[in-house]
Amino acid sequence: MTPTVVHELFAKYLQNRDLDGLGSLFDDDAMFVPGPGQKPVYGREGIKEALKSYLDSPSTIEMGATSVHRNGDLAMVQASWRITGEGGTVEGRALEVMRRTSEGHWVYIIDNPYGV
């Protein structure tokens, strides 16, 4: 498994409106930056709460890593993304830190989808 599989799973879980699936992509103590000027959210359950708005309407997401730098079980990832839904299209460039778990899965430690 590589860190980029997290993007594939995020897209799948978002399309399926699977909040628990989205939550599984975050470490228990992860940090999520919900948007410019907003305070970070900490912990998987808090992040799931922040992600609920992503599931309000049917949408699809296209995302892919533009750079991945690995150092052992850590990865720093930059990704471009585009969400298209009933309300239009939103795009961004994410900065992410991921960690490989003892089971070999990659999870977000820090997810900053707007790169702010």
Characterization of the model:
This protein is α+β, with helices and mostly antiparallel strands and 116 residues long. It is 21% helix and 47% strand. It is built from 3 helices and 6 strands, in the order ααββαββββ. A 6-stranded mixed sheet has the order 2-1-6-5-4-3, with helices on one face. Strand 4 (74-85) and strand 5 form a beta hairpin. The N and C termini lie far apart (28 Å).
List keywords for this structure.
6-stranded mixed beta sheet; 21% helix; 116 residues; Nuclear Transport Factor 2, Chain: A; single chain; alpha+beta; 6 strands
| CATH-derived topology | Nuclear Transport Factor 2, Chain: A
- Which spans of ≥5 residues are poorly predicted at pLDDT below 50? none
Number of helices: 3
Level-2 CATH architecture: Roll
Order of neighbouring strands in the sheet with most strands: 2-1-6-5-4-3
For the record, what CATH class applies? Alpha Beta
Based on CA atoms alone, the radius of gyration comes out at: 13 Å
Helix content: 10-25%
Order of helices and strands: HHEEHEEEE
Classify the secondary structure makeup into a structural class. Answer: alpha+beta
Number of strands: 6
Mean pLDDT: 94
Q: Estimate what percentage of residues fall within beta strands.
A: over 45%
Shape: globular
Question: The biggest beta sheet, please?
Answer: 6 strands, mixed
Question: What's the structural domain tally?
Answer: 1
Distance between the termini: 28 Å
Summarize the entry for a quick read.
Helix content is about 20%, strand content about 45%. The chain has about 120 residues and is α+β, with helices and mostly antiparallel strands. A six-stranded mixed β-sheet has the order 2-1-6-5-4-3, covered by helices on one side.
